[in-house]
Structures are given as C-alpha cells and as structure tokens.
Design brief:
Elements (H helix, E strand, L loop, with lengths): L1 H20 L15 E6 L5 H19 L2 E6 L4 H8 L5 E4 L1 H11 L2 E8 L5 E2 L1 E6 L14 E4 L5 H13 L5 H4 L2 E4 L3 H9 L5 E5 H10 L2 H5 E6 L3 E2 L2 E4 L5 H13 L4 H10 L1 E6 L6 H9 L13
Parallel strand pairs: 1-2, 1-3, 7-8, 7-9
Antiparallel strand pairs: 3-12, 4-12, 4-13, 5-11, 6-9, 6-10
Helix pairs in contact: 2-11, 3-4
C-alpha cells in the first residue's frame, strides 16, 4: 500500500512536467473583425482622372480617422448614382444639389456635410453661356441652334435651361432648337461651346472657373447670358441604414479636419477651407426651383433620352 501511495504521489508531481514537455496544441485562431467599408459615388463633373486625384487623398484621410475604409467610384453619368443606390452598390455619394434632392426623394439618403471652397463659398450656381462671336444674346436668338446640356439630373446643366425657356415662353425646347444633347459632364459642355460643337451650353460656375484658370480662352471667348440661384455645393450623403456610429465618426472627421494639420493639407489639395454641416433645409431653393417648372421629384424620369 505504501508503495502504491508513493507511486501515486510521484505521478501527480510529474504531471506538470509532462504537460510542459508535451507538444502544445495551437490556440484557436481568433476571428478577425469584419473591416467596415464604404463605397462613395462621385458625379462625373469633369475628367475621371482629375476627379480621382482630387478625392483619393480625402478618402485616405477619412479612412485613417474613422477606421472605416473609404473608396470612391466615379460614375459614368449622373443618373447612375441613383441606380447604384437602388442596386445596393453605393453606400453614399457626393451629390450635386439636384441629384441629392432626387436621391433623397427616391431612395431616402441623408446629407452630412459639404465643403467650403477657397473663396469661402459653399454654394454654386448654374450658367447659360455662348461664344461672344455667336450673336446669341436672348432666348429667341437660340432658335434653330445647338444646345449642350449636361444631364437631366443636374441643376446647372438642365433645370436652369428648362426654367429659362419656360420663363421666355418656350415650353418645347426640342422643337425650338435645331439640336439638344447631353454631354455627361460640365467640363464637356463648356468645351463643346468653346470649340464650336455647340452654340449654347449650360454648366456650373465652379467648373467653369476651374477650367478658366487653366485655359484663358474660356473667359476671353465665352459670355454668360444668365445664372441660377445659389444652391449647395456637392455634399456627402449616406444611405439611411448606415450604422449610426459609422455615420457619426465620418461626419465628425469631416467637420473637424480643418483643425488638424494633416487634414488641412488634404483640404488644400481638395480645394477647400473646411467642411460644414449640411441639412435638408439647405435644399429648399432646389425644391422650389423644381416646383416652378412643374417637376414632380417622386416620378421624375432622370435618365437622358
């Protein structure tokens, strides 16, 4: 009995040593938390590469600050932003004023913030312009001419001309003009008139001025006939079902980036002083504009034809 008792004590004492010498099972691999991602759409205001050069540094900054991977996708045309929301490919977008009003009415996106430009403005306006040597100065002078619109989902590139024609007693612009077509970008509408492909064009003033800074022909050879009211600059809006914590982190990062040295560098490249909070109330002028031309936002067919 005494021998068995000693043997038992010996085995108990050796167990830790045996455990230490035996090969260890690898610990179960910890599950990696899913990485939050947001894909943000960009409206095709200008050349694809210029758009990405402007927005990619902003996306990298916001990704670092929020812990959410932000990627951008330039869409080939304005109406595609709403289509992509409907097919759940987009989480948000930098919307133009009319595009936001449409997307809010049709798919319920909610605006967060918009940039303040280097000249301290956070709005833009639409313009109708012609070549100075065209002799076109009134709506009646446009009869039988070629008009370069941007897209049916733009304030500057379509709502303004519609209102302009209606105010001047021209309800059917298609029958009045020789040709009306959509360029797809504000940049192309400007260059089409400059290069005589079109007689009249419509576009937003911020793109017009940006191009004029690089090409002196624009201010020298084009003249502006009329302009729209001021409307909010392109603003970031997200789907309603985006997690509130993600939404709040993104909004806070945008609104405070001008207080951060790294953020100020990104803003400078972006062409802005800061971002400011933006709400649906800021778009009342756009909704009123649509009402004046009897446009029903809920049923409006924004695809070009």
């Amino acid at each position: 009995m005494r021998k068995r008792w000693i043997a038992s004590i010996f085995c108990v004492l050796c167990l830790p040593l045996l455990a230490a010498c035996s090969p260890k099972e690898p610990p179960p691999s910890a599950k990696k938390p899913s990485v939050e991602k947001l894909q943000i759409g960009l409206i095709p205001e200008q050349n694809l590469f210029r758009q990405m050069e402007r927005y990619e540094p902003l996306g990298e900054y916001l990704s670092r600050k929020t812990g959410t991977k932000i990627t951008f996708k330039v869409l080939p045309r304005y109406g595609n932003i709403i289509d992509n929301f409907k097919s759940s490919n987009m989480d948000g977008a930098f919307f133009g004023s009319f595009t936001y009003v449409l997307a809010h009415a049709k798919v319920g996106v909610e605006v967060l913030a918009r940039p303040v430009a280097l000249d301290n403005t956070s709005t833009y306006y639409g313009m109708i312009f012609v070549r100075k040597d065209s002799r076109i100065r009134t709506a009646r002078d446009m009869k039988g001419k070629r008009f370069a619109f941007v897209d049916k989902a733009t304030t500057a590139g379509y709502l303004l001309p519609l209102d302009y024609f209606q105010v001047h007693g021209i309800p059917d612009y298609k029958g009045f003009l020789k040709e009306a077509y959509f360029t797809g970008t504000h940049e192309d509408a400007i260059f089409d008139v400059l290069n005589r492909k079109a007689d009249i064009g419509a576009a937003k003033n911020t793109v017009f001025q940006r191009l004029a800074n690089d090409d002196p022909r624009i201010l020298k050879e084009l003249v502006i006939l009329t302009r729209s009211p001021d409307v909010p600059e392109n603003a970031l809006a997200l789907r309603k079902d985006i997690d509130a914590s993600v939404r709040n982190r993104l909004k806070e990062s945008l609104l405070t980036m001008h207080l951060d040295p790294g953020g100020r560098k990104v803003l400078e490249r972006f062409g802005a002083l800061k971002f400011i909070e933006t709400t649906n109330q800021d778009y009342c002028v756009v909704r009123k504009y649509a009402e004046e031309i009897h446009l029903d936002l809920a049923t409006y067919e924004y695809m070009n034809n």
